[in-house]
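Look over this record before class:
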Amino acid sequence: MKRILYLLLSVFLFFQLFPVPRDNPPITSEITTSVEVKEILKRSCYDCHSNETVWPFYSYVFPVSYLVTNHVQEGRDELNFSEFGSLAERKQKKKIYEVWEQVDEGEMPPKDYLLLHPSANLSEKDKEILKNWANAFSEDSE
């Protein structure tokens, strides 16, 4: 049993020698919105959906480092508020509606993220603000 534990510890320590990249590329075309909406997005979305990720201590520890960096990369690929302004206007409106849709369905922010980041939890007031924001864009497209 001791040998197995030593082996597992050795593997764990070995993988610490190969850190995964945790970068924050430059902000190229940030989303333009009200201060109220921006505050909600920064608090609840930016860690995974912007180039302003705050990398917590556990993002430096294998195997969690791989999970966190993968999650952030997937989030940025889907929606990146730091590059939002470079999207075509029609695509921006679609993404804003999708933000509200994900919030309304309880998909965002993810429950596992909220366990370690309770301040990202959206209040009913936050949700109402995001709903009104999304609705304003859908009305603009009519």
